[in-house]
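sry for the spam today, last one i promise. C-alpha coordinates for design, 192 residues
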Protein backbone atom coordinates (compact mmCIF):
# COMPACT_ATOMS: atom_id res chain seq x y z
CA UNK A 1 0.00 0.00 0.00
CA UNK A 2 1.28 3.46 -0.85
CA UNK A 3 0.51 6.44 1.32
CA UNK A 4 -0.36 9.98 0.31
CA UNK A 5 2.03 12.48 -1.24
CA UNK A 6 3.00 15.22 1.20
CA UNK A 7 4.82 18.50 0.77
CA UNK A 8 8.16 18.85 2.56
CA UNK A 9 10.78 21.62 2.58
CA UNK A 10 12.66 19.50 0.04
CA UNK A 11 9.66 19.03 -2.24
CA UNK A 12 6.92 16.39 -2.51
CA UNK A 13 7.35 12.99 -0.84
CA UNK A 14 5.10 9.99 -1.34
CA UNK A 15 4.78 8.10 1.90
CA UNK A 16 5.39 4.36 1.84
CA UNK A 17 2.20 3.66 3.77
CA UNK A 18 -0.51 5.22 5.92
CA UNK A 19 -1.01 5.26 9.71
CA UNK A 20 -4.03 2.96 9.28
CA UNK A 21 -5.22 3.47 12.86
CA UNK A 22 -1.79 3.60 14.53
CA UNK A 23 -1.75 6.35 17.15
CA UNK A 24 1.44 5.55 19.09
CA UNK A 25 3.03 8.91 18.28
CA UNK A 26 0.06 10.52 20.05
CA UNK A 27 1.30 8.95 23.30
CA UNK A 28 5.08 8.71 22.89
CA UNK A 29 6.04 12.11 21.49
CA UNK A 30 5.74 15.62 22.89
CA UNK A 31 3.45 18.14 21.20
CA UNK A 32 4.37 21.53 22.66
CA UNK A 33 1.72 23.48 20.75
CA UNK A 34 -0.94 21.27 22.35
CA UNK A 35 0.75 21.37 25.80
CA UNK A 36 1.04 17.58 25.52
CA UNK A 37 4.00 16.14 27.38
CA UNK A 38 6.03 13.19 26.17
CA UNK A 39 4.67 9.82 27.32
CA UNK A 40 1.09 10.99 27.87
CA UNK A 41 -1.74 10.17 25.48
CA UNK A 42 -2.92 13.30 23.67
CA UNK A 43 -6.45 14.26 24.68
CA UNK A 44 -7.22 14.81 20.97
CA UNK A 45 -6.35 11.17 20.10
CA UNK A 46 -9.00 8.60 19.26
CA UNK A 47 -7.11 5.37 19.92
CA UNK A 48 -7.26 2.98 16.98
CA UNK A 49 -8.63 5.69 14.70
CA UNK A 50 -6.37 8.74 14.73
CA UNK A 51 -6.38 12.40 15.54
CA UNK A 52 -9.73 13.81 16.65
CA UNK A 53 -8.76 17.24 15.25
CA UNK A 54 -7.01 15.91 12.13
CA UNK A 55 -8.17 18.71 9.83
CA UNK A 56 -7.12 21.46 12.25
CA UNK A 57 -4.15 19.80 13.99
CA UNK A 58 -1.11 22.03 14.53
CA UNK A 59 1.82 22.06 12.10
CA UNK A 60 3.95 20.26 14.69
CA UNK A 61 1.70 17.22 14.27
CA UNK A 62 0.86 17.81 10.60
CA UNK A 63 4.52 17.72 9.51
CA UNK A 64 5.58 14.73 11.64
CA UNK A 65 5.98 11.42 9.83
CA UNK A 66 7.59 8.45 11.55
CA UNK A 67 10.03 6.20 9.71
CA UNK A 68 7.34 3.52 9.38
CA UNK A 69 5.41 5.89 7.10
CA UNK A 70 8.46 7.04 5.14
CA UNK A 71 10.67 3.96 4.76
CA UNK A 72 9.16 1.08 2.80
CA UNK A 73 12.18 -1.12 3.66
CA UNK A 74 10.97 -1.41 7.27
CA UNK A 75 9.18 -4.72 7.63
CA UNK A 76 5.82 -5.25 9.34
CA UNK A 77 7.57 -5.90 12.66
CA UNK A 78 8.48 -2.18 12.74
CA UNK A 79 4.85 -1.00 12.72
CA UNK A 80 4.92 1.30 15.78
CA UNK A 81 1.98 -0.25 17.64
CA UNK A 82 3.47 -3.73 17.18
CA UNK A 83 7.08 -2.76 17.95
CA UNK A 84 6.11 -0.40 20.79
CA UNK A 85 8.75 1.90 19.27
CA UNK A 86 8.49 5.07 17.20
CA UNK A 87 11.40 5.47 14.77
CA UNK A 88 12.09 9.05 13.67
CA UNK A 89 14.84 10.87 11.81
CA UNK A 90 16.27 14.28 12.62
CA UNK A 91 19.40 16.36 11.96
CA UNK A 92 18.56 16.19 8.25
CA UNK A 93 18.37 12.41 8.43
CA UNK A 94 21.74 11.96 10.16
CA UNK A 95 20.18 10.80 13.43
CA UNK A 96 17.75 7.94 13.94
CA UNK A 97 15.75 8.01 17.18
CA UNK A 98 13.99 4.95 18.60
CA UNK A 99 11.46 6.15 21.20
CA UNK A 100 9.91 3.40 23.33
CA UNK A 101 6.25 3.40 24.26
CA UNK A 102 6.12 4.35 27.97
CA UNK A 103 3.87 1.33 28.52
CA UNK A 104 6.74 -0.84 27.19
CA UNK A 105 9.96 0.78 28.46
CA UNK A 106 13.06 -0.67 26.84
CA UNK A 107 11.08 -2.12 23.92
CA UNK A 108 14.05 -1.20 21.72
CA UNK A 109 16.16 -3.74 23.72
CA UNK A 110 14.09 -6.64 22.37
CA UNK A 111 14.74 -8.52 19.15
CA UNK A 112 14.68 -8.00 16.27
CA UNK A 113 14.97 -4.30 17.13
CA UNK A 114 18.09 -4.34 19.31
CA UNK A 115 20.30 -6.07 16.72
CA UNK A 116 19.03 -3.80 13.97
CA UNK A 117 19.67 -0.62 16.00
CA UNK A 118 23.27 -1.76 16.62
CA UNK A 119 23.70 -2.55 12.90
CA UNK A 120 22.32 0.87 11.96
CA UNK A 121 24.78 2.46 14.42
CA UNK A 122 27.68 0.55 12.85
CA UNK A 123 26.63 1.91 9.46
CA UNK A 124 25.88 5.47 10.63
CA UNK A 125 28.86 6.35 12.85
CA UNK A 126 31.57 6.30 10.13
CA UNK A 127 29.35 8.63 8.07
CA UNK A 128 28.91 11.12 10.95
CA UNK A 129 25.47 9.72 11.76
CA UNK A 130 23.93 8.60 15.02
CA UNK A 131 21.43 6.13 16.44
CA UNK A 132 19.70 6.87 19.74
CA UNK A 133 17.19 4.96 21.86
CA UNK A 134 14.93 6.67 24.38
CA UNK A 135 12.81 5.63 27.32
CA UNK A 136 10.96 8.89 27.84
CA UNK A 137 13.68 11.55 28.14
CA UNK A 138 16.29 9.00 29.24
CA UNK A 139 18.76 8.71 26.34
CA UNK A 140 20.94 5.84 25.20
CA UNK A 141 23.56 6.43 22.49
CA UNK A 142 23.72 3.32 20.37
CA UNK A 143 27.13 1.95 19.42
CA UNK A 144 27.77 -1.18 17.34
CA UNK A 145 28.55 -3.07 20.56
CA UNK A 146 25.44 -1.81 22.34
CA UNK A 147 23.86 1.17 24.12
CA UNK A 148 25.61 3.70 26.35
CA UNK A 149 23.41 5.20 29.06
CA UNK A 150 23.63 8.99 28.64
CA UNK A 151 20.94 9.86 31.19
CA UNK A 152 18.78 12.86 30.39
CA UNK A 153 20.41 15.10 27.80
CA UNK A 154 19.84 18.78 28.57
CA UNK A 155 19.96 21.69 26.15
CA UNK A 156 23.63 22.30 27.01
CA UNK A 157 24.64 18.65 26.68
CA UNK A 158 26.27 17.11 23.63
CA UNK A 159 27.40 13.61 22.76
CA UNK A 160 31.01 13.18 21.71
CA UNK A 161 31.40 10.09 19.53
CA UNK A 162 34.95 8.98 18.85
CA UNK A 163 36.45 6.14 16.82
CA UNK A 164 38.88 4.21 19.01
CA UNK A 165 40.76 1.31 17.45
CA UNK A 166 38.18 -0.94 15.82
CA UNK A 167 35.27 0.46 17.84
CA UNK A 168 33.52 3.56 19.08
CA UNK A 169 33.08 5.40 22.35
CA UNK A 170 30.69 8.16 23.35
CA UNK A 171 30.50 10.50 26.32
CA UNK A 172 28.38 13.43 27.39
CA UNK A 173 30.08 16.82 27.23
CA UNK A 174 28.97 20.38 27.93
CA UNK A 175 28.77 23.38 25.64
CA UNK A 176 32.21 24.74 26.54
CA UNK A 177 33.99 21.47 25.79
CA UNK A 178 31.95 20.99 22.61
CA UNK A 179 32.94 24.43 21.35
CA UNK A 180 36.61 23.76 22.15
CA UNK A 181 36.50 20.46 20.28
CA UNK A 182 34.79 22.07 17.29
CA UNK A 183 37.60 24.65 17.08
CA UNK A 184 40.33 22.02 16.81
CA UNK A 185 38.57 18.91 15.54
CA UNK A 186 36.54 18.15 12.45
CA UNK A 187 34.01 15.37 11.88
CA UNK A 188 33.81 12.50 12.62
CA UNK A 189 35.40 13.37 16.00
CA UNK A 190 33.34 16.53 16.45
CA UNK A 191 30.46 16.53 18.95
CA UNK A 192 27.10 15.77 17.50
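last one done:
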Amino acid sequence: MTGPTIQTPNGPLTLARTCDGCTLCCRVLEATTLNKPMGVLCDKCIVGTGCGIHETRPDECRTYHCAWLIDESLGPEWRPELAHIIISYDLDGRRLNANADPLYPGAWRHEPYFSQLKAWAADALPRNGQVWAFDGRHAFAMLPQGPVDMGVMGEDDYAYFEAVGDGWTVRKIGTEEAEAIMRVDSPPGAPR
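The chain has a mean pLDDT of 90. ok im logging off now
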